[in-house]
Amino acid sequence: KMVGIDLGLTHRVITSDGDKIPNPRFLHRTERKLARVQRNLSRKQKGSQNRAKARHRVAKVHAKLADQRRDATHKLSTQLIHENQVIAAESLPVKNLLKNRSLAKAISDVGWHQLTQQLAYKAERYGRDFVQIDKWYPSSKRCFHCGHITEKMPLNVRTWDCPHCGTQGIDRDVNAARNILQSGKAILAGADKLRQHEKTTTVGLTGG
User: Fold this and answer.
1) Which residues are identified as catalytic?
2) What pTM, to 2 d.p., does this model score?
3) Is 94 a residue whose pLDDT tops 70?
């Protein structure tokens, strides 16, 4: 089985099969508690025992948040790896996206980079194929059915209506995930051809 995954903020993962995995939004759930313990820390006198205790409480909240994110990512990546032989994903410029102040907190919380890292090493461990497509590939702007590429696809447009082939009402993110899978399959097919060519060349040189 093969799957393409589109990464998002409202839904952490959208698959080419049409499944949508919600974003747990752990930071959003913990923000009030974190703000409270940080305010408490700021009120403590520097160098005091109470400040040390308050700092420890802040660290505990951060540690729990990190554990929750890590656990959710492990479960999701393991599920994707066990259910699929081939996984194709976006290659997002996370460092550049984090420069956007209005999105930085949400991007850090959803953990795209951590997810793709885990998919990569688990794919190698379990003998799966994991491929990331080029970050400039227009997965959201391309019609999966006919390949037509539109110039603009604003984020507020949530369904794909193709002016070329007439396809209408396709979920924007599912369409993108299907394009990602198609591109990933093409990359893997090209790699297989290259390996076959190298193998043939080697055999020819050795006279085998």
Assistant:
1) 6, 90, 173
2) 0.80
3) yes
Is residue 51 helix, strand or coil? Answer: helix
Token pair for residue 119?
A: 């998919």
Would you state the pLDDT for residue 108? 81
Sign of CA pseudo-dihedral 78, 80, 81, 84: positive
Q: What is the DSSP string of 67-96?
A: HHHHHHHHHHHHHHHHH-SEEEE----HHH
- Predicted confidence at residue 131, as pLDDT, reads 94
* C-beta of residue 187 within 8 angstroms of C-beta of residue 165: no
* Element of type H or E holding 124: helix 112-126
pLDDT in tens, 6-61: 998 889 999 999 999 999 888 878 878 877 888 877 888 887 888 888 888 888 88
Burial annotation 124-152 (CB, 10 A radius, 16+ → b, else e): eeeebbbbbbeeebebbbbbbeeeeebee
46 CB neighbour count, 10 Å cutoff: 5
| Pair 133, 187: CB distance under 8 Å | yes
Confidence label for 71 from pLDDT (cuts 50, 70 and 90): very high
Q: CA–CA distance from 148 to each of 24, 89, 145, 170 (Å)?
A: 34, 21, 8, 14
- Tokens 């019609």 -> residue: 143
> How far, in Å, CA of 12 to CA of 79, rounded?
14
Distance CA 45, CA 151 (A): 57
Least confident of 9-18, 112-121, 158-167: 158-167
